[in-house]
Amino acid sequence: MRGVVYTGTERLDGKTVVITGGNAGIGKVTALELARRGRQICTQLSLSLPISDEDRVDILINNAGVLTGNKRPTEDGLERHMGVNHYGHFLLTQLLLDKLKASAPSRIIFVSTWLYFVWPMDFDHRPQNKKWFFKAYGQSKLANVLTARELSRRLKETNVTVNAVHPGFIHTDIARDFPLYYSRIVHFLNSPFNSLLFRTPFLGAQPTLRLALDSSLANVSGKYFGFQSEESDPGWAGTDDKAAAKLWRISESVTKTGAM
Q1: Is the distance from CB of 60 to CB of 94 less than 8 angstroms?
Q2: N or C: which end of the chain has fewer CB within 10 A?
């Protein structure tokens, strides 16, 4: 249940990695592990540099995520989990696609979870369509899996691979912005006793590291990997190609990237 540590020795000299949410938790460990593997590597921990400053992008890791009981919408009027966990990454990926294609062979990784098994995709992402926060979070992570699947299909002849990964149950501060009335949940999720039940950010980063580095996965795309760093079955909801295509069309409309 603890997972495996990636032991590959691949280098990233001269490569560029873009990773979201690199300031804490799994993202920070992933960024540091990748950065120590190369000279002249630019690892953007929080996208603080303009995208246009980068000549190439070899690896894009869509890692950032929120889990919150706060039903306040994003500035764009979207349900917060979908806005941050899905639409933000969809837009970023679209903006970087030309650089990823030009840098091929390149890789795109979506850090997801297993919660999408529970509910099929619900396409009403308005904040007034109030969902239980755990369902909303699961929907956003299902969106990651479906987006990876659809994008992989669209990039089939480009030598850009796209995969999704579940890091496992990780002890991080993801619940830091829960409202006070969820204080018991926050206390539980942030409790040091969770080290007995949850994996460390270091272990949580290992599946992502394998997808980013392992040469044996150079031609693997459109797949879902579990926390044991092996290809897994994403279930019926995660392999619904009609839902993936519909979500893609909606996401293009929301992010205004349909003509890209």
Answers
A1: no
A2: N
Which pLDDT band holds residue 181 (cuts at 50, 70, 90)?
very low
What distance in Å separates the CA atoms of residue 256 and residue 4, rounded to the nearest whole number? 40
**pLDDT category, 245, cuts 50, 70, 90?**
very high
Residue 137 a catalytic site member: yes
Q: Which residues contact 88 (CB under 8 A, 6 or more apart)?
A: 20, 64
Catalytic pick among 6, 137, 181, 224: 137
Answer yes or no: are the C-beta atoms of 197 and 169 closer than 8 Å: yes
pTM of this prediction?
A: 0.86
Cα-flanking dihedrals φ and ψ of residue 135, to 5°?
A: -70, -40
What pLDDT digit, counting tens, does each position of 153-164 carry? Answer: 999 999 999 999
